[in-house]
Each structure stands twice: as structure tokens, then as C-alpha cells.
Structure of Trehalose 6-phosphate phosphatase:
Amino acid sequence: MHARSAPQRPRPSPPDQGWALFLDVDGCLLEFADAPDKVIVPLGLRERLHALSEQLDGALALVSGRSLEALDDLFWPLRLPAAGLHGLERRSRNVEHRAPIASQLLRRLCAEAETLAIDHRGAMVENKRAGFALHWRAAPQAEHAMRAFAESALSQLVGYRLQHGDRVVELLPVGGDKGGAIAAFLEEAPFAGRHPVFAGDDLTDESGFRVINARAGTSVLVGKRPDSAATFGLLDPADVRAWLGMPGTDHDDGDPAR
Ligand SMILES: [Mg+2]
């Protein structure tokens, strides 16, 4: 058996009743799939998240690049407080901010992107309504064409920005990031006054880590990206689920340092 090397960052302590817990979804709670609609929610994860949420008096929120609608579909029947589209959308006890409706131009650009993806086997377009994402996880050769299309589409739109991620680039309306969404949750019950904790894997999570660090909280990078502000680390989504106490997820990687 090949043992993976230990993360450079220390492992966070197990969840505590006094936490306000923020969790990224793809690449954090769930393993990536070739396409976002092919991810699998492991058996027992919804139940574990529900139980954790109860233990934290409701202070558990998902903070994702998916839309709120997509998050609700994925975790149904569980409906947690959440930030969607990298902080553009947010739902708490007090507020429900949805992204603006897509313009005709955006819908046309999304359709053009879908045509382009057909020409690059394995590439795909994720329609997020308020924007769209170009993925090349299963088609590394398509990266240049996908990035070039995104740049060109951006130049035709007003009030949009590019969000770069791991083998994905997204066109989204300007405004909001994960850090801003976490900061807004921390102003409200039941999150306010608790020790803030955020786990995530991708570049878009860095704004969240900075907000957490500024409040002396616990920022947790999933994976081994070197250039992260996070102070703690976990190996991969299975390790995250074990950390959250999901039964049957003992994550023995054979490393005696752990
Ligand atoms: Mg992620």
C-alpha cells in the first residue's frame, strides 16, 4: 500500500458545540466527479450534517459555488443555511438573497459555450442560471479554448467577473465572495458569538479563510495547495467526513504521524 504523505498543516480538533461551522461542498464534503451533476453524496452524510447542525444549535452552513437551488437538490431533504454561487446568494434565518435573473445575452453566451464544449470531448458547461461554468476536468486539452471563450464572453457583458477554480472558470455577476457570506452569517444568530470554522479546498475559499483568520477562527484547507491562508489541513473529502464524525469513515492512510 502506498501511504500518502501527511499534510503540512496541523489537523483541526473535532467539532465542538461552540462552533459556527462553514463547509464548502465540492472537493471538501464530496469528491469531485467529471461533471458537477455526477457527484455522489455518500450514504449517511445528510444524516450526519443534520445531527451536527442540531448539536451546533443550527450554526452550520454550506458555502459553495453551486446555486442555492442546486445545493437543496443535492442534499434534499436536508435544507441548511447556505451561501451559493461563491457568496452571491445567501440564505439564513433572516435573509434569502438570490442571484439576479440571467439576461438574454448571458443565455445566448451559455448556449454558445455548450456548443463549444460539444467540440471538446469531456469538457462541459454548468448552467448556474445567473452565470455559467466551463469545466475541463475530464478534458485537459480543452483548457485553452474554454479560458479563451470565458475571456471573450466577459468582454461582452457588463457587471460580470471571472471566477477561476480547479479546472473550471466561471462567469458570474459581480458582487459577493465566500468571505463576505461567512462574515454576514457571523453577524446573525445562531452563528454570532461562536468560534468560526471554515473548511474548503479551492481558490475561491481563500476569502473565507481570511475572514476566519481575522476572527481568530479555524481555517481548514482540504488538500495540499501550497499558497493558502488556511492554518489547518485535512487530506481529502473522506478525511473531512471522518473529521466531522461520520460513521464508517475511518480514514487510515497508514501514516503513523497521524
Ligand atoms: Mg470546493
